[in-house]
Design goal:
The longest helix is centred in the middle third of the chain and has 15 residues. The chain has one domain: Aminopeptidase (3-Layer(aba) Sandwich), CATH 3.40.630. It is of the alpha+beta class. Helices cover 33% and strands 38% of the residues. Strands 1-2-3-4-5-7-6 form a seven-stranded mixed β-sheet. It has five helices and seven strands.
Amino acid sequence: MATNLMQADAQYCQLGYADIDQILGIEEQVYSHPWSRGNFVDSMLSGYQAFGLRDEAQRLFAYFIVMPVLDELHLLNLAVSAAKQRQGYAQRLLAHMFAYAQERGYVSILLEVRVSNRRAVDVYRRDGFVEIGRRKAYYPAEGNTREDAIVMRRIC
């Protein structure tokens, strides 16, 4: 019940350049190999769409960035702040993303996720994403090594 009350207090919003500092704060908190400021700026300059969730005080605590590729939407990045994880906010973002994709006529949503990120893989599977392949040595990892990515897709 508390999760639903918390989610009712979250406001969905479109993000832009003015939000990059808040996005980076979350990114650096939750990822071992976070995107850089340049990655976010370049994504926005390229016209990719960024959306998020804000709390009652208008603090950003979750976001995603998507890139259109022909008739498919590619999820580039999704994060929920550490304090708000395990409360259903990732599912809420995915629901907004799915609605966004359907409204614009995309056929599917594609993403890559680290093999080691079991929580994210489980969230995506619960949301209807299925594994369609692997990308070998896709992500940088600890000790100057590389980690495989699971490629997942959800049909809209």
